[in-house]
Amino acid sequence: MTERKEDIDGATRAEEDLLGSELRALMSSLPKELSPDRDLTAEIAAVTWDSRSTPAQGREAGPPAADAVSPGRRIAWSSGHSWLLAAAAAILVVVSSTLTVLVMRAGDEGPARTATAGRGAPAAYGAGFASAGFAEDLRVVATEYEAAVAELRAVLEANRDALAPGTMEIVEENLAVLDLALRETVEALQSAPADAQLQETMVTTYERKLDFLRQAVALTAEI
Amino acid sequence: MRVTVGSGTACLRAGRTGALIGAVLLGLALEAPAQETEPFEEAMPIAPDASIRVYMEAEGSVRIVGWEHDSLQATGTRTAGVGKIGFGGDEGSAKVSYWPDKEGGTGPGEVNLEVRVPATATVWVKLTTASVDVTGVTGGLDVYTVKGDVRVSGSPSELSAESMGGRLDLSGDAPTVMAKTGSGPITFRGESDNVTLVTVSGRITVTGPHLKRGYFESVKGDIVFDGELAKGSSVKFKNHHGNVELRLPETVGAEFTVTTWEGDMRSEFSVDTATVDERKGGKVRTFTVGKGFASVEIDNFGGEVILRKH
């Protein structure tokens, strides 16, 4: 029991450290409650996919999120690598927070805006969009995801010796499939940037990318 | 693996020459690389609702069987002199594990294990390349492999299965099923209130389900759904490069929303009354088949959408 509590405390501290004061301040300024204007069941299911504390707790069908380290999984699969999993969790918390801001503002103000500073989006994302507003929003989202992907990759690379042989090949193969899907989605978005389904597809595909990296990182931890 | 020299040597009884050849062949066979195995057997009492973890970094297989005894039992074989097997815990939780000797240069070895657990226990399984077969578990079940195939049958109270490179074969009637792969196919047969199947490049096949809610997503693999849609049920299919094919009874009643971009839709059901929303490069069709008691949403970027009668 003691070991489990230490894992949780350590992970929480790591998440707080990595969030930074600016993002924490932004998050604390957000309203406590918002009424959804549509059925959020699928999204809720996505969040709860890995948020269980046992292998099975009431979940509904829906797209699983790339929740790097849920409390349940952190407890269940932790050992000496809990810091690593906590770092992965923090990376995704940052991404999720940015997306939350985007979604909330989009609901009230039409095209979403975000205060999060971009880190230089890849040229492919955002370039050539018909609408500058959506292009900027999508560029910000892509930037955050790409940054999270890069950081998870770095964590994985630093621990690749702990992976079973062939694991990196599987990860790379699947990331290549997802990258192709992303490129095609972004191309389609360039002519229809306001299309909600294409936007959702882009986000879902990024989630898959992160999910794969999260899975690989989790592989370095014993249950 | 233990080398066994058994019968099947009738041809060598023909004479001295044959015997000599046989001896030479036998000698060659014995010189071939062969790893000795050693048996493994442990057991301990445990509570029916205990949490049990199985962890193994090795080739081979794991079979997990839920039984009606308040005890945990592990039996099997492993490559002799390689790795370490762990077995222990208390009445509330226990762990069966195997680690390779990474510093000894002996490789991961092979382990073939059968673990018997109280049927109502909560079970976690995490393996690298070994395959796993689970039956008879009615508690929660969480299975994870890197490349090993996963087969689960029965009625776990909830089921989560993931494999990056292996295939998932799931059957039974767990109330909730969550499954995810990278390149491996996912097959689900049975009934469930909530099913979520997600893969990157694997194929998804769903057969004979009686679902309340379902979510099926692939990026590259085909998705085939062959079953009934219960009244009030809601299912969603999402694909990028693969096809989405639904094989439904002629009497099906459902409201459909089908979005395609580069691919198209073919239907054996009448969609004459479909409302079509043309978008830049895409098309959204909304239509009702039969009484429309179920809800079906399909979103496919590059693949085809096919609706068939079965």
Topology:
The complex is a heterodimer of chains A (223) and B (310).
Chain A: H1 2-28, H2 41-48, H3 71-77, H4 82-109, H5 132-158, H6 167-191, H7 196-219
Helix pairs in contact in A: 1-4, 4-5, 4-7, 5-7, 6-7
Chain B: H1 16-31, E1 37-45, E2 51-56, E3 59-67, E4 71-79, E5 84-89, E6 93-99, E7 110-118, E8 122-127, E9 131-135, E10 141-145, E11 150-154, E12 159-163, E13 168-172, E14 176-181, E15 186-190, E16 192-199, E17 204-217, E18 223-239, E19 244-248, E20 254-260, E21 265-267, E22 275-279, E23 282-289, E24 294-300, E25 305-309
Parallel strand pairs in B: 2-6, 2-8, 3-7, 3-9, 8-10, 9-11, 10-12, 11-13, 12-14, 13-15, 14-16, 15-17, 16-17, 17-18, 18-19, 18-24, 19-25, 20-24, 21-25
Antiparallel strand pairs in B: 1-4, 4-7, 5-6, 20-23, 22-23
Name the average pLDDT of chain B.
87
Structural class of chain B: mainly beta
User: How large, in whole angstroms, is the Cα Rg of chain B?
Assistant: 25 Å
What's the overall average pLDDT of chain A, rounded? 61
Tell me the series of helices and strands of chain B, N- to C-terminal.
Answer: HEEEEEEEEEEEEEEEEEEEEEEEEE
> Which spans of chain A of ≥5 residues are poorly predicted at pLDDT below 50?
1-12, 40-58, 66-85, 101-130
The profile of the biggest β sheet of chain B is: 25 strands, mixed
Total helical elements of chain B: 1
* Beta-strand segment tally of chain B: 25
Distance N terminus to C terminus of chain B? 48 Å
Q: Low-confidence parts of chain B lasting 5 or more residues at pLDDT below 50? A: 1-25
Distance between the termini of chain A: 14 Å
Report the oligomer.
heterodimer
